[in-house]
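Order emerges. For instance:

***
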Amino acid sequence: MRNVLLSFIVVCSVLGSVSVFAAGEQSSPSKVSFMTIGENYARVRMESMTSGVQGCLKQEFYILDLTNGVGKAQLSGILSAKSAGTVIYFFLNGCMNDYPKIGHTYLR
């Protein structure tokens, strides 16, 4: 019984440490300064970019996946914020095409 409990604790510790590395992070609140929009993704550059995000190789833009309805809805909000000069920020989770990937968009 003691070995089973010890094994359970070890497994939980390992899983817990893996989830820490997989966690996303928040970008700096800022205005959108530049965008590129293509068929499957949009790249967004902010006036203030958070550096070293998610360990992605490229840090000049954040990237938004447009292959699903959620990304297209986020794009609409980002374009509105850019047009209005509103400060926004993102929850970044992982990399896409070597750029930090936008998971959530927060409009103030």
About this structure: Residues 2-22 have pLDDT under 50 and may be disordered.
